[in-house]
Write a structure and sequence with these properties.
- By secondary structure, the protein is mainly alpha-helical.
- The chain has six helices and two strands.
- Helix 1 packs antiparallel against helix 3.
- The longest helix is centred in the C-terminal third of the chain and has 36 residues.
- The radius of gyration is 19 Å and the shape is globular.
- The termini are far apart.
Amino acid sequence: MRLPFHMPDRRSALKVLHWSMLPLLIWFILVTPEDVLPFGPTAFRAHSALGLIFVTACLLWTADYLRRGLASRPGPKLPPWARRVHQVMHRALIWGLFGVALTGFGLGLTAPRLLMAADVLPIAPPLNLPRAHEVIGQIHIYEFYLLAGLTALHAAFHMWRHLALRDNALRIMMPKLLHRFL
């Protein structure tokens, strides 16, 4: 059966996923649920909807990795130590994204009441385990900020590659529309 539209290739789809997650990551670094609560339930629902989008993207990326492995390859100009860093960093990012989604599920599972993502999707059946909820909440927070730090290192690594090695690492990752600026 022929589809009525052309499916993008894997690299293009991952670029879209990659760049659509960046503003969400920045949003969640800067804005916590406590920050939006004073603005009312609509603001909290919007924040929760962004979380649902972020988690869905995390799970899609992890599923793609489990099915097909890493999409990126270390460039030929990378020294051996940088090749190892490249592979480890990308795997850590993918598993970190999955871990954030998993601990979010754990928060819903240990909550005292049913938590809904964007008032649409139940996160997990609540088991009302307050101590476990507190511990998982701390793990979720630290894990997310560690992931954010790793993301900053990831960006710095690719900028170093692009500028010091001149291997066009940023061109590979950026949409073609922005290539003229690199």
